[in-house]
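Database export, one record per block. Field names are fixed; values are copied verbatim from the stored entry.
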Amino acid sequence: MPILKELYTFDRTDIHQLRDFLLNQRRLSGWTQEELSDRSGVSVRTIRNLETGSNTNPRRTSVNLLLTALGATATAFSEPAPWVSGRRPALGQPPDPHSDTTALPPWQGPRPLGDALVGRQADLGHVLSAAQRSRLIVLTGPGGVGKTRIALAAASRLRPLFQGGVAVAELHDIPPQHLEPAASAAELTRVVRRLTSDDGGARGGAGIGRRLLVLDSAEHVSQQTARVARQLLDEHPGLQIMVTSRRALAVGAAETWEVEPLSCDQRDSSDTELPSAVELFLRRVRASLPTLDLGNRLPLVQQLCRLLDGMPLAIEVAARGLRSLPLTTLLHDGTLFHLLAHVDAGDLSRHRTLSDSVRWSYDLLPAPHRELLRELSSLPRTFSLDAIPAQAGGGYGSTRVAHLLAELADVSLVQINRGQQYRYGIHALVRHWVTQEERSTGLGRPSERGREWPALAGSA
């Protein structure tokens, strides 16, 4: 039986009954609409429209997120959840420091950040829904796109359903599998075995029971993570695993969700009043500079978000930059990318700077892939597969180029727009870093150096 079936049985019954239920539950919980918005990831506007009855056709994802935040099931509209009176924290939320939290399953490892997710309602809803279909969920996407935040937010909401608790392991410090395969495998096994042992959080020591294991940053040990995940799922029927990785895992049973950048142009009416990238920037500016009003500068904010391709981590670091530089300066003469490359990201990232984050992915690439990435960085912002051989200096072979391009996309360094004709692109921060790397090392692009691509291909 799917673990989360009780959370996803909503079919559109009486919309007035749903409206009354949500309104009563929110008031019983003592929350304002803004507080429910922060806890659920659903916009204040959507909550207001549901409670006033002006929204008669709510999205399933919005309803599920609201019910989950209120600690309710989708079939219990007429009955208050037993813990909404304050005796137990709402599903997936930090416990009230003044309440009895002994009933809440344990949590090991890093916890979600306290600030609300922005523009991630659909992602969060999909992950929660996927948890009822698959015991292995993989979140992929480029560095800084928000995989970890979404995974931890989902784990927090799922926590009450796992009596064995939630265990989170950061894999970043494990040696890369291609450099030290034996040491890497041994360390990964040690980490996950410790978190899935009988005494690693379950009560009574009689097996781990239902437990959610989150493995964060697995791209450099993707093959070994896939192997260990298969073993663990076979050994522990009550175990569910969530993985974040810039590279997808080669596991047929896994449900993979590709986390994309935030929208810079279109408003998501179910989540934010503005394009979600713009909303994130404004929220972060308000948090650090509450007296700075950017209300009349929204076109410039939107321009900045477009320059950053809607990448959340880059947007948050750029928002910090307003403490010392005006918005117009950030948009002038490459100042923005210089700032992003050198400013300490602090607790926003496991990497010290965004340059370090890009280098992490770059250093995991074999030589032929690095060569092609440098070549692709000189192409227009988006390009087709047919455009690459002509730009790549010739002599390398379109079949091999297509193969390497697919592998660059698999590690989230190349993005794909899957329309009638596939279009490819490289995020601006990666493009900028690769260009600066060429200049600092004197490598240049392969076509400029006359390097023989077939020889490099043989070393892949």
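Remark 1: The longest strand covers residues 239-245.
Remark 2: Residues 11 and 60 are 8 Å apart (CA to CA).
End of record.
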